[in-house]
Amino acid sequence: MCIPAICGYHPAEPKMSLWRRGASALETLVQILPFYRKDDADKDQIIKNLTAENIHLKRQLRNRSMDLIDQISSRRQWQKRALEAERSLTRNPFVVLLIDGDGYIFENRFVSDREAGAIKAAQELYAFFRDSVREVHTNDEGFSLDFEVAIRIYVNKTGLATAMVEAGIIDNPEQMNSFFVRLTQSHPLIDVVDCGGGKERADEKIREQYRHYTSIANCKHVSVACCHDSGYVPFLEKFQKCDDGKEKTSLFATGVNVHASFSTLEFKRIICEDIFRKTPNFTKTQRHSATYAQIIGSKPALPSPRSPNGCSPVSSSGTDISRYSSSRSPIRVQSPSTPTVPVNRYGQRVDISLDMPSEVCFNRLRKRTKNGQLCAEFHLNGKCSQGKGCQLDHNQLKAGVKEALQYSLRATACKRGLGCRKADCYYGHHCPAPGCGARPSCEFGGMHGIDQTIAKHVPAVSS
Q1: What is the C-alpha separation between 140 and 267, in angstroms, rounded?
Q2: What are 250-277's pLDDT values in tens digits?
Q3: What is 334-399 written as a DSSP string?
Q4: Do the Cβ atoms of 252 and 130 come closer than 8 Å?
Q5: Is residue 386 within 8 Å of residue 310, measured between CB atoms?
Q6: Residue 369: how many CB atoms within 10 A of its CB?
Q7: Where does each C3H1-type zinc finger lie (predicted)?
Q8: CA 134, CA 127: separation in Å to the nearest integer?
């Protein structure tokens, strides 16, 4: 055996030391043998470790492979569900028109046509709304122009029919009911819902229906026909802050019958000019109109609230005015020294509340006006624009008559409306009748649900 060859395979220091000391081959082998054995043990341990690591890695690989298979299967299932959900969202898209029928009244040409009026109204409204929605969303990617149209009309049928009979548009209330029945039968997705009397009945239904439809993914557009009533504005303001609600919503207006407060809303607008009446009011000679003559008891016909000469004649023959006392809490502010007019945050005129005079005062007013008309301009403003040429009663009034006169005239709608800036205007600028519900026959058209909180005073005008 060649010692150098043996030593050459193991560089351990003890072996080399023995070799340099000239140790015998046997001694050298005895000395270096433990090192070789240790090396072999280390190799065995390394092999065992590698084998164990290999087994562990194989097990992990197998587990990961199984996880991957599960993930792939799960992903495919979720992809399938996502595709099905996407198809369901785009399947059967529809749009909805919610109409407050107390403010949006079909034109006379439809209602008076017993045979085909309702069908024509349904066809024109359906086609107009469908085409308008398509035009609104022409540039919207992903908006399908192939959709169903649903129309929901909420109305006080009895109140509307009564008003239209008195206006001479229809012969009897049953004709109005027949019109609504034919309107409903004309299309499976057109419904007319009778909400009965009361302002909040239709309002509440429209609010909840709007909330319901905006939450449905298949409902791509909701248009609300309620622009005559400012009471809807606070509710709709909440939804214009929501991107989905804002994109889905439009305001359906007649072009004229739009309350000023709706200008604060940023929704899209659909203007319909030839299906509904421009204003829900009929004539001012109906017994449901809240005019001064009704309130203090004119029996058959109502006198004009203003005579041609500019003065305001007042006559009466007696009834109970207390039913028109305001249901709101009195709003009292100190009048500024310079002529101004109180307005709310929308710039609409606010009427300062008046204390209701006693029945004695109203009796004195009735008695005074039995034989002649009072000049309201003279008695309330202290001057008469007609001067000596005025033929109305300028004589001194008994105590309380002036207050009764002023209170009574508040029940007559001001012709200037909510934009009136006349400081000494004694007519009303919001409906004083509790529970009126903005009925079609009320002369305070567009003056219901007005915010009576004074935001500021604006300069008044002399005339």
Answers
A1: 15
A2: 999 886 667 778 888 888 999 988 899 8
A3: PPPSS-EEEE-TTS-B-PPP-PPPPHHHHHHHHHHHSSS-EEHHHHHHS--TTGGG--SB-SPPPT
A4: no
A5: yes
A6: 23
A7: 369-397
A8: 11
